[in-house]
Amino acid sequence: MVTRRIADILRNGQPDEPLTIKGWVRTKRELKECAFVEVNDGSSMANLQVVLNPDLSDYGNIIKQLNTGASVEVAGVLVESPAKGQRIELKAETVKVYGEADPETYPLQKKRHSFEFLRTIGHLRSRTNSFGAVFRVRNACSYAIHQFFQERGFLWVHTPIISASDCEGAGEMFTVTNLNLKDIPRTNAQEIDYSKDFFGRPAYLTVSGQLEAEVMAMAFSNVYTFGPTFRAENSNTSRHLAEFWMVEPEMAFCDLEGNMDLAEAFLKHVFKYVLETCPEDMEFFNQRIDNSVLATADNIINNEFERLAYTDAIALLEKADKKFEYPVKWGLDLQSEHERYLAEEVFKKPVILTDYPVEIKAFYMRLSDDEKTVRAMDILAPKIGEIIGGSQREERLDVLERRIQAQGLNPADYWWYLDLRRYGTVPHAGFGLGFERLVQFMTGMGNIRDVIPFPRAPLTVDF
Ligand code: ATP
Ligand code: MN
């Protein structure tokens, strides 16, 4: 008999269909005349109700084993459900228990558990309703991202995880080494002798694939990365991880306007896809996690994003009758409270801020003619703040060299990056999206550690 996924059965199953399911028991209810067992296989939020009648062979023994968490295979026929709550149910003919779960020790019992507690059982939490929904939506987002770019002819390029360059000179990188930490080789000046290390020079886990994506865009025109990045920042916030995934499209022959258009179409596409493919999960988030999730998704899909220059945003913030913790002044970076004020209270929708002061942005962003601002763009989302950061890149060799030097970096370290401007340079642009921030935004989950299966953060590397 064919094994069917439960999501498919709940949607398409018809009475009298014979079939087999495999999954894990969520709950069991024993009555005098029969027993009901709810089985989940991860394909949907909803469980399939299985009815076991006492005439089943070995009934008493099987019922004893079907506790929450046990793994089972059930073969039977679908019947219309006489009770409210489900359209169909599975009348069991044979039941095979693969593995029991002792109700005395299995940590996931029927009551509601806090997310803090569930983080301590990261190996089991995916079997709950909340995490089932989160990781199905995370999967749908991933698929939608690839779909969006692939349909537009972008190449998915794999940029390295081990890197010798710090993308923005921002520091906070994890070192990759195989030196013996108990006996570190030293130079005469007592510095660490990296010539004895694996790569013969310092190497790090990447903080961004952008520079390498630019290399690939100069051959394939439109590319994107989608992979893990690492930051050793000691920030214990609900929006920062030490290991997170980034999506970084890079487009040749593209300016900042093209970049904004793409980013907006991109976010709209991903939201639309998730609403279409995960309606039950999104409904769950709206009911149980954050009751503005569906309205926000609707807002993203149906409204044009606000586009605003940094200078105008500063003017708005200075006029605001709200007290901010951090100062607002032209030339200072915006804090999350400012970003959220603009997105949540002033415009009530995503805002694309452009043309930031040159001093607060990275060297590779294109200098404007007044030399005071660069062609940067950040997309600010309600509840989250910055979700996307991007820019038109500096394509002029002399200006780029000057900017690298101005930031105290050595142009020689960027020889290959500068070569892209020496040979066949073109205007180009791209952006980076923090994938977990997107999943947080989509689901309303408050803590970024609850939207990645195995979170890595300061002092956190379990499972
Ligand atoms: P923030 O100010 O929030 O720390 P950032 O300015 O350091 O962000 P970028 O260097 O521009 O961020 O990184 C690109 C994107 O990656 C950000 O827009 C954000 O969505 C995401 N991001 C940055 N740092 C983290 C992190 N530690 N954990 C998860 N996502 C992150
Ligand atoms: Mn940061």
Describe this structure in words.
With 463 residues, this protein is of the alpha+beta class. The protein has 13 helices and 15 strands. It has an eight-stranded mixed sheet with strand order 6-9-10-15-14-13-12-11. A hairpin with a 7-residue loop joins strand 4 (71-80) and strand 5. Helix 4 crosses helix 13 and helix 6 packs across helix 8 (293-302). The longest helix has 23 residues, at 129-151. The protein is elongated. The two termini are 36 Å apart. The structure holds adenosine-5'-triphosphate and manganese (II) ion.
Q: Which features characterize this protein?
A:
alpha+beta; 8-stranded mixed beta sheet; 13 helices; 15 strands; 23% strand; binds manganese (II) ion
Brief account:
The protein has 463 residues and is an alpha+beta fold. Helices cover 31% and strands 23% of the residues.
Topology:
Blueprint: H1 6-12, E1 18-30, E2 35-40, E3 48-52, H2 59-65, E4 71-80, E5 88-99, H3 115-119, H4 129-151, E6 155-156, E7 162-163, E8 204-205, H5 210-220, E9 222-230, E10 243-252, H6 256-277, H7 279-288, H8 293-302, E11 306-309, H9 310-319, H10 336-346, E12 351-357, E13 373-381, E14 385-392, H11 397-406, H12 415-422, E15 428-434, H13 435-443
Parallel strand pairs: 3-5, 6-9, 11-12
Antiparallel strand pairs: 1-2, 1-4, 2-3, 4-5, 7-8, 9-10, 10-15, 12-13, 13-14, 14-15
The protein binds adenosine-5'-triphosphate and manganese (II) ion.
